[in-house]
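Entry for the shared binder. Reason: the reviewer on the internal report wants the predicted structure included alongside the sequence.
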Amino acid sequence: MLPQPVVRAPGPVPEVDVAGLVADLRAEVDGEVRFDVGSRAAYSTDASNYRQVPLGVVVPRTVEAGVAAVAVCRRRGASLVSRGGGTSLAGQCTNTAVVLDWSKYCHRLLEVDPGARTCLVEPGIVLDSLNAQLASTGLEYGPSPATHSRCTLGGMLGNNSCGATAQRTGKVVDNVVELEVLLYDGSRFWVGETSDEQYAEIQRRGGRQAEVYRQLRSLREEYLADIRTRYPDIPRRVSGYNLDSLLPEKGFHIGQVLVGSEGTLVTVLRARLRLVPVVRASALVFVNYPDIAAAADDVMRVLEHQPVTLEGIDDRLVANERKQQQLVGLREIPEGGAWLMIQMGGDTPQQARAAANRLITAVRGGGSGTVHEFTDPADERQMWQIREAALGATAQVRGADRTWPGWEDSAVAPEKLGSYLRDLRRLFDEYGFGQTSVYGHFGQGCVHTRIPFQLTTADGVARFRSFLERAADLVVSYGGSFSGEHGDGQARGELLPKMYGSRLMRAFGQLKAIFDPGDRMNPGKTVSPYPLDSHLRLGADYHHPSLRTTFAYPDDQGSFANAVLRCVGVGQCRRHDGGVMCPSYMVTREEEHSTRGRSRLLFEMLDGSVRGGSIDDGWRSDAVRDALDLCLACKGCKADCPVNVDMATYKAEFLSHHYAGRLRPRAHYSMGWLPALAAVAGVAPGAVNALTQAPGLGRLAKFVGGIDQHRDVPTFAAQSFQRWFADRTPAGNGHRGEVLLWPDTFTNRFHPGVAQAAVEV
């Protein structure tokens, strides 16, 4: 007999003895147990419109430590949510639960089998890191979202991620061999494709796994006709649970059933993944069209040439990027219209170019507009940056309303895409969203967009709900999916009955009850979900006060609160290498020491004064101070963040208020006065060095200056850079223009060789 569907009880979350929970976790789990105000604030939201402050955060050092954490939560009745990169757009990574963050420690590549083209990984491994370690094999993990530099495989499994490369490799669900999973009740086993013989063996062994498999087979038989007829037959169906993977022709693949379940069913401990050969050579073709719907109309003709990727971008996206980005590739795109980005592959550059030439001949013969071809890898990377910067470029546009997710990844059959986009544009116009940009994975009919919802008024929230309901009806009329990549979470869980009907929704509830009858795994998402307009990060009661600030914030309407809202949670500051953001995160791998984490704490600080958020002591908050302490104020985020978050300025703003009317730490005075002190020391640098390097005096100087005793006091250069520059003989004739250098104190007084090298360049 099948269990009854899980029905979430209305009202507040069940009470948990948090003190007892913390004590048990610290006693039994090898990991970092963080129930402090700052950690809870940093994990209060993801990249979505939703916010729920967690009970606390556990960062397990090993997979077994994660198992121990689940056991403690089970004993204490605490809900759970697993988290990877935390870039989800539908709210599935935020909950009033214990957050398991696998990304800091559980990120090993355990096995590689080149012959079988498989690998075994822990859930916290980042996609780019995995593929870098696989490079010598000539294989890679195929699905690659735009967040590939920071998304974890555990998160990708939870979301059934795709990316542009899914055109060639398919979704995550198509690239999973087997999973080791942990149920909330403590049961632990491997799941994958299951033959009749394997099923019989599992039943002979008995136990919880046998019970689960038996109930899943009964579920399949009861809803077989519904599964075969109600699931959209399109490349990008991500919404809902993968009951279709229970079908006999799909091998009764329980691992695939659990992909895309967003942490609502099980905890994934390890994953064996299917690998694909790396594309050895490629050529990128841009084709211009009058508008985005016309570009979509040409998709089926392009698909005949089997592209590696096929993306669409509109002129609004390019215009937005021109306003705020310095992307070199933008120079290559003419004004107006829309474009298909088509990547062709081959084993050699000659093969890739030949494939591109055949495509170009075909599209020109069909009357398409301007065609640009890029075969140099450096040029290709520059052009791909245009597409990968899309989310940030459409989130925060100068002179325009802020945009939000909510209907950001609907999908239809590729042959219907042009008509769907025309109807979607009419819906945008009806709701006053006419300037909304559209782009996406057009080869698979997946459409990305961010919409200028007004989420801070009751009327705006009501229109948000109304639009989503109308948009859901529209995509259902096209036989499509609410989500083609980002999942359901809270944003679309409530809408799923429109897409699947009452019987399959009952089946989803029974699937949830098979794995998690107590509804402790990420409750309120997908099945028996919270309303789509509840737990909003903003909402009708949002009102962050206008504060008297030190800085003017001219790009944010003069508002510190608006500046803090710049962060949209895409997590580019969580990259492990490349770029200049965020050095403190690269070292610590801790959320609160990322630009995103600090933005979250500042938001919670402002929210606490109005709605009783997790940080309620305002500018005096020690939690915010501690998160900002490791910020180097390097301004890397100002340049590297896709929405230009300026954490160096926010830090200076916060500290000016935090220490107003009271003494600062000694290091603030020693570093603040360093330029003046260094100028004095420059009169006799040798004598000053002798004093500061003497053991006793050096320790005293470090104590007075608030410098850690483990640090060495730097030595002053015999000659400052400015003195060297004034004495030098200029080279060249000056016809190449002027260059301005601003040497900081350390470069000028301690390491002038760096600036001298800059002059040489």
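Summary line for the report: The domain at 18-101 is CATH 3.30.43.10 (Uridine Diphospho-n-acetylenolpyruvylglucosamine Reductase; domain 2).
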